[in-house]
Amino acid sequence: MKTQPRLPSLRHRLLARGRAAWLGAVCVALAPLGTQAASAPRQLLPNGDAELATSEPGWPDHWSRPTSGSFSWDEENGRRYIRLNTTEPGQVVLTYRSLPITPDIKAVQVSLRARVIGLKCGPQSWFDARVMSDFKTKDGQKLKGARTISFRRDTDGWVERSVRFAVPEGAALLELMPTLFQTYSGTFDIDELIVTAIDPAELAPAPAPAPAS
């Protein structure tokens, strides 16, 4: 005589359905988070927006104080920023940042929110308001490859600028120096200095060589 298979009770069926629905909801909730985490840009520079000041009163963490000109940590519309001023012609008014470069970082984007007021550049083409950049090895030797964000005239309020460049072989450090470089006069406001690791494929390709005549 064959035995009829035992059917699950109503309670067990309801529990199974509830467990499946719960697992499905968890998967749906986590899927967007996983996608977002995978695609989120990797920020490298702490306190690039100059909002935090926990170590030194009146000056943002990780930013060096200039040794010439005048400078301040100001606020406008609820946002903090750094202001550099040339007080004598020919000064180098500079604040310094640096960040380690690990071997997995092959290219970076440096972006900046800035405002330039009353700028009068010096006699050389590089005597202006700029964010200078340098790569260095672990032994402190400079490497070529970093690019500069520069301003030769006043901006129309706050503007955003960015540059992208590859990381040279052997680089262990990236230095960033927002500067009024030997200008006659000027005010350089700096906010949102952001460094992001990017895929080297995002870099613009080099221009094709001109055909031989």
What keyword list fits this structure?
2 domains; 14% helix; 1 helix; Jelly Rolls; 213 residues
| Whole-angstrom Rg | 27 Å
Q: Ranges with pLDDT <50 over ≥5 residues?
A: 25-38
Mean pLDDT: 86
State the domain count. 2
Major sheet size, sense and barrel closure: 6 strands, antiparallel
CATH class of the largest domain: Mainly Beta
Q: What is the annotated CATH architecture of the largest domain?
A: Sandwich
Strand content: 35-45%
Shape: globular
CATH homologous superfamily grouping of the largest domain: Galactose-binding domain-like
Structural class based on helices, strands and sheet pairing: mainly beta
What is the string of SSEs from the N terminus onward?
HEEEEEEEEEEEE
Give a verbal description of the structure.
There is one protein chain. By secondary structure, the chain is mostly beta strands. The chain folds into two domains: 11-38; 42-201, Jelly Rolls, CATH 2.60.120. The chain has one helix and twelve strands. It has one helix spanning 10-39; strands spanning 42-43, 70-76, 79-85, 91-94, 97-100, 107-120, 129-136, 142-143, 149-151, 159-166, 173-183, 185-197. Strands 1, 2, 3, 6, 10 and 12 form a six-stranded antiparallel sheet that branches. A hairpin with a 5-residue loop joins strand 7 and strand 8. The longest helix has 30 residues, at 10-39. The protein is globular, with a radius of gyration of 27 Å. The protein starts with 9 loop residues before the first helix and ends in a 16-residue tail after the last strand. The relative contact order is 0.21. The model is unreliable at 25-38 (pLDDT under 50).
